[in-house]
Each structure stands twice: as structure tokens, then as C-alpha cells.
Amino acid sequence: YISVTGVQTCALPIFILFLVLLPVSLFATSQTKEFVYVGWENDPYYYRDNARGIQGVFHEIMAEVCQMQNYQCRFKILQFREAIEMLKRGEANGGGPFVFTYPRATILTFGERMFSSNYAFFALPKVAAKIHTYEDLSGQTIGVLALSVSKVSLESVNEFVNGKIKVVSEKNITSIMRKIENQNYPLGYLSREAGLSWIKKQQSAIQEIPNLGENLDYRFAFSKRSLSDDEYKKIEKSIRELRQSGFLEKVAKKYGLRLAE
Q: Per DSSP, what are the bridge partners of residue 189?
């Protein structure tokens, strides 16, 4: 090789190799997509543990799906309404636990039924001992999560007792349970598992009132603005594979929950 030409000649194969490898590198990077997941404080479904960060059965399932789909997942805990609004605006891709409603389904794509549960009434022992039927709720003040399906359910009970229940809306489950403990009002209406989990962790005297409350199913929900139909179908396929492998049954047992059939 001659000096100038030689340098140029030796550099050429290196430059060509760089051009060949660059698209491969970009392709590998493009396969990892950020996926923003939002939920709300609803232990044992989705909650923040002070020592371990975000936990819960919906977190464990979605973390597994993210690995299967090669997503870089960012998990967030918000107030209930904030989580819904982020999904509406397309600022989050998926979330849960949520209950299916037809109005929500106009802006969210709901997955299959994941866990079956029910709403329940909670009170301190003296109050709980007096409540046996829906009629016994007449004249009571009851706390419930604002703008939620649980509130819609409670309003149907209120209709049954001729509007004689005073409904108080709260931002989160902790507010409801704390106000029952502090005797700000006598009763709360919320997810049975969430209430029982709170009682256990706080070693509270609050009791569940048995055999009253509407059934519900929790699901994943996905933003129609930020997740394509194809991406949704791939996620649902991963969840079905987790069901078939026994993973869903395993995590349901871990949290003491009942898989929807």
C-alpha cells in the first residue's frame, strides 16, 4: 500500500463493516419498547410495599408479560381516578385492577376476566353486630371510593332503601378504613380482599359484614390511544400462556385470590 491511498483503502472495509452492523444495533434497540403501567392502591391486587416497592398479583403478572414481550415496563401507583385518566389520554399503555363497564370500554380495551371477588361492607364490631340485611343499612353513613364501580353498586343498595343511606366519597381505600376506625362514619363499602388485607396489616378491630355486597371481576385494561390492536392481542396471548403454564394459579394462591373461570 502507498501512504495516502493505503490509509483510505484500509479504512474502507472498516467503514463498510460499520454500516452493516449499525442497522443490526438499531434493530435490537427498537425491539425494547417502553410500557407504562398504572394502578391504584388495592392490596393484594396492586399496592406499594415500603420495603419492596410495588407489589401485588397484577404487578407480578404484568412483569412476566413484559419479559415475554420484551417491554421495558414502568409501574406507577396513582389515585384511582388519575390512573383512569392517564389511560384515557394515552399517557399510559395498560393498567389494573379495573372492573369492566360499557362507558369505560369506549376508551379502554379490557382483557379477559382475571379474578373473581365481591364488594363488602366493613364496620367496627358494635356496628357490624347490628347489620344483617340491606334494610339495616337504612339511615347509615357509608364511605366508598369516589367515581368507582363500587360507588355505583352502593347507589343501587341506596335505591333499595329509598335513598336513606348517606354516601361519602373518598379518594382511596385507606381513607375509608381510617375513618371507620376513627368513627367519622360507621361503615365502608369496598373490595372484600382489600378490606381484609388492610385489617390484617393494620391489626384493626374492623370486621367484614358477611353475605352482603355485589360480585365483581377484576381485569387488565389497555389504552386504545397508546396500544395497537396487534400489541393488545400479543399481550392477551402471553396471559393465556401464563394461565396454561400454571403461573396464574400459582400467584393467585400466593395472594389468596380466586381466578375467574
A: 121, 144
